C-alpha cells in the first residue's frame, strides 16, 4: 500500500503500524498529494492511505484523481484525518474514497479499513458513519435519486439496508444466514441495477430513498 501525509512523523508512524499488521506492506510514501498520485499511478498499490490536509494537492483532490468518477481503473483509497468534520467525510466519499478514519483510530481499526478497501468493502469511522449519512439524507439529494433499471429483490433490499448500516460482508452473511459469496453477488447486482460504483454509493442511495428505515 501507499501512505501519504505531509507530516513526516505521522507518515513514519502510520507506516510502522501498517507494516506490523499481517498481510500489509507499505511500498511507497509521499509528503504531498501530487507526489502521492504520481507514485500511486506508477506502483498501482492495492490501497492508498491519504491525509486530507496536504500541500499542493490535498487528499480529496488526490483521491478524485485516482478513484473519481472519470477514472477508468480506480484505486482503493482510504482517507485519514485529525478533523472530525462532516464536509471532509462527504467530500472524500464523493471523490471515491472507500474508507474514512480519524487519526485517533487504533491499529486494529486502521488494519480493518485497509483490508476492507482491498477487498472492495468500505469502512468509515463508527463515530461518523450514522451522523454523516443522516445529515446527507436530511439535506436532501441535489437531484432526484436514480431509479433501478430492474426492480430489487427482497434479498437485495435486505442487503441494501445492511450496507447502509455499515455492516461488512461477513456481518451481512451472518445476519442473513447466507454465504459470503452470495452477499458479494447481491452487492454486485445492486451496483449494476442502480448504476453505482461501490458500497458507499449504495449506502448513500439507501438514505436518499429512505430505504435505511424500511426494515428493523
Automatic annotation (TrEMBL):
<dbReference type="Pfam" id="PF00196">
    <property type="entry name" value="GerE"/>
</dbReference>
<dbReference type="InterPro" id="IPR016032">
    <property type="entry name" value="Sig_transdc_resp-reg_C-effctor"/>
</dbReference>
<keyword id="KW-0597">Phosphoprotein</keyword>
<feature type="domain" description="HTH luxR-type">
    <location>
        <begin position="145"/>
        <end position="210"/>
    </location>
</feature>
<dbReference type="InterPro" id="IPR058245">
    <property type="entry name" value="NreC/VraR/RcsB-like_REC"/>
</dbReference>
<keyword id="KW-0238">DNA-binding</keyword>
<dbReference type="GO" id="GO:0003677">
    <property type="term" value="F:DNA binding"/>
</dbReference>
<dbReference type="Pfam" id="PF00072">
    <property type="entry name" value="Response_reg"/>
</dbReference>
<protein>
    <submittedName>
        <fullName>DNA-binding response regulator</fullName>
    </submittedName>
</protein>
<dbReference type="InterPro" id="IPR000792">
    <property type="entry name" value="Tscrpt_reg_LuxR_C"/>
</dbReference>
<feature type="domain" description="Response regulatory">
    <location>
        <begin position="1"/>
        <end position="118"/>
    </location>
</feature>
<keyword id="KW-0805">Transcription regulation</keyword>
<dbReference type="InterPro" id="IPR011006">
    <property type="entry name" value="CheY-like_superfamily"/>
</dbReference>
<keyword id="KW-0804">Transcription</keyword>
<dbReference type="InterPro" id="IPR039420">
    <property type="entry name" value="WalR-like"/>
</dbReference>
<dbReference type="InterPro" id="IPR001789">
    <property type="entry name" value="Sig_transdc_resp-reg_receiver"/>
</dbReference>
<feature type="modified residue" description="4-aspartylphosphate">
    <location>
        <position position="51"/>
    </location>
</feature>
Amino acid at each position: 500500500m501507499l501512505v501519504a501525509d505531509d507530516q513526516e512523523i505521522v507518515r513514519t508512524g502510520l507506516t510502522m503500524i501498517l507494516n506490523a499488521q499481517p498481510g500489509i506492506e507499505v511500498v511507497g510514501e509521499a509528503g504531498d498529494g501530487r507526489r502521492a498520485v504520481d507514485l500511486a499511478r506508477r506502483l498501482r498499490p492495492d490501497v492508498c492511505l491519504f491525509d486530507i490536509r496536504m500541500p499542493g494537492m490535498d487528499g480529496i483532490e488526490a483521491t478524485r484523481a485516482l478513484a473519481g468518477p472519470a477514472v477508468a481503473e480506480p484505486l482503493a483509497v482510504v482517507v485519514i484525518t485529525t478533523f472530525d468534520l462532516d464536509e471532509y467525510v462527504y467530500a472524500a466519499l464523493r471523490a471515491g474514497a472507500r474508507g474514512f478514519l480519524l487519526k485517533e483510530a487504533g491499529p486494529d481499526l486502521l488494519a480493518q479499513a485497509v483490508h476492507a478497501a482491498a477487498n472492495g468493502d468500505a469502512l468509515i469511522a463508527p463515530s461518523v458513519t450514522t451522523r454523516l449519512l443522516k445529515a446527507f439524507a436530511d439535506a436532501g439529494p441535489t437531484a432526484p435519486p436514480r431509479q433501478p433499471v430492474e426492480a430489487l429483490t427482497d434479498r437485495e433490499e435486505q442487503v441494501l439496508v445492511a450496507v447502509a448500516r455499515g455492516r461488512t460482508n461477513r456481518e451481512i452473511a451472518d445476519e442473513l444466514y447466507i454465504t459470503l459469496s452470495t452477499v458479494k453477488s447481491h452487492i454486485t447486482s445492486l451496483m449494476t441495477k442502480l448504476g453505482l460504483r461501490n458500497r458507499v454509493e449504495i449506502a448513500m442511495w439507501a438514505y436518499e430513498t429512505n430505504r435505511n428505515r424500511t426494515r428493523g
